Amino acid sequence: ADIIKLARTIFDEFRDMASKKEQTMIFTPFAKQYEMAFDPHLVETILFNLLSNAVKYSPNGGTISLKIRQEGEQLAITVEDNGPGISPQQVPQLYQPFMHGYVSQGGMGIGLSVCRSIIHAHNGEMYAGRSAHGGLALRFELPCKEEAYGPNDPQ
Q: What is the DSSP string of 45-114?
């Protein structure tokens, strides 16, 4: 499936919500399209969760970006915002179910835990850090090659 098309479609679904907060949305893919093996429904869940959090926690007038890059045999997708971010001490707990702090305000706090599980099922990894915009940057990597998946892996 075309992961860039999927990402653009989901990204565009958040434009109205972001415009109500006068947020700037920036989509930066490395190509117009990119076909690879992945489960579109599961990757949609990840992107929806990350973008939803970014729009929700970024202030009025903030910036949310979605970058897609190919790095060797990995596809890297990064969502960045200029919300409150997290402290370095919170990073280890970020993916724990029911994590408390700004990440789980107004929700059940299981979203990032589920996202990380989906990414691991795709033989990928997820990373958190400081955003270039001053908030949170969440990056996940998925293998580009179908050979990276076993017969029981999602794709």
A: HHHHHHHHHHHHHSPTT-EEEEEEEEETTEEEEEEE--S----TTTGGGTTSTT--SGGGTTS-S-HHHH
